Amino acid sequence: QKEAQLKAKAVEEIFTSEVSYLNQLEIAMKYFKDPLLKSNLKLPDALKVMLVNLESVYNVNGELLNELRRHGEDVASAFITVAPFFKLYSVYAYDYRHGIIALQDLSKTSSKLDAFIKKQETRPEVNSKLCALLIAPIQRIPRYRLLLKELLSHTPNSHPHHASIIEAIRKVEASTEHINSLVYEQENMQRIVELQKSLCGSKPVLVHPGRKLIKEGILQKVSKKSNKACPRYVVLLSDILMYCKMTGVPLGDQNSLRCSCVLPLRRCTVQQGNRIFSVTCQTLTIVLYSDQESCTTESWFEAINNAIMQDAQHRQTLNRRGSSRQVLKKKDLNFMSDALTPRKRKQLQEDADDVCAPFHSPWKRNKMTSSCASSTVSSSSSPS
Fold it and tell me: What are the backbone angles phi and psi of residue 86, rounded to the nearest 5°?
């Protein structure tokens, strides 16, 4: 009898929380989205997109509430029907971070817009901060899993709804994973674009389909000549390892990094030493270590080693050549050009000797007779 009461309470919590959530969305749309979009006030693009996407989120959850009312105590069947549509939340989640940043910066960027929003927040019908209303969709899908888990804990194995609750949890988890993966990929690509902009001359070209950012940060590079360590900004991507000099411009700003060398992971090996590690690519070996507690030498070694293994597995699965077969030093980056089309690049790859094959970024070659000489690694010199 007690379990039955707890189960009924869990079902009621699902209903009441859904009604409350939809009420939050209605307030956000009625008192913020609609008047702001109709006004002459200029909205930041990220905030505008996020407000517009509220309607699609509201429609999905309106359908969920209808299904909950139709199925009654069998709430799991409602989730099984609607859960696949939760993936639409990824559209909202894409712009959430940038939208919230734009909202928080309104006091500096648009005093009129900021004053309007604050006035709306104090209305008795609202009585809530806009940022609190906008975060509700981000928190909602994980909340469903908790609510269904609570319901499952009070549902005996012999109950006819037990199997459907498990299925509902599985579908909600699948949608959550889908949303998280899409948001991660979008944020990961955005960070690669930001790194691209911070490189002097925007070279080398980092943005490429399928390429992912794995790790970045400042490491100490040990010089072979003086045995002294110099700070370098190291970027580990899914198929290359790049290290750069810092120009003195604040990190993240344009021209704050100058690429020194690009190492294709397919030609790299990594060895761990005493508080250091070395990366060898063909004839080039660099020795690195971290002096930061937040990002240890050990974590860098493991990240690079795992990236090398994953790159090998990925190429084997797809039967791809991957990135360049040779080290690309600073002098080689001057030959890169975005104007080279994939078709021309393919023709150059077919015509050029295999050792001169470029990595995923396009190349500009003045003469085919001099291209090999331009990209050949000099074993006698090491980039700084």
Answer: -65, -20
